[in-house]
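[step 3/7] fold_predict: job queued, chain A
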Amino acid sequence: MTKEIVTVALGSDHAGLRLKEEIIKMLQEEEYVYKDFGTFCEESVDYPDIALDVAKAVKSGEYKRGILICGTGIGIGIAANKMDGIRAALCHDTFSAKASREHNDANILTMGERIIGPGLARDIAAIWLKTDFAGGRHARRVQKIIDIEKIKNSD
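[step 4/7] structure written:
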């Protein structure tokens, strides 16, 4: 039985560029299929634009998962979570990374370059990408999150 290939949509604003470059190295070393949605320089950009591009790519199914990085990981995650079907999780430790996949079926990981270093970020991303959704009782809870989106859209 072959394991499903996890494809990754990746993006950062200017404040997350260097950490994104470290994550790209890890993705290349582990031979993940990925696309970098930008930014590509340290010139100031608006993180919601990058979050939208990555969230669209994940929601459409073109990419299985996404990784977004800004200065704190907060703003870019808030922006991504505005799109239905996206469950972006801010993780600055490996336990949260694993739990966000197992329990919440998070499909986008967010991190902050000004919060964590490259070694820890690589560990977090590696664990997050390798962890599957546990299903079971967690599936019921994730479905309730999806149901909230339906209520929001019916107003």
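[step 5/7] annotate
The radius of gyration is 15 Å.
Residues 47 and 76 are 6 Å apart (CA to CA).
exit 0
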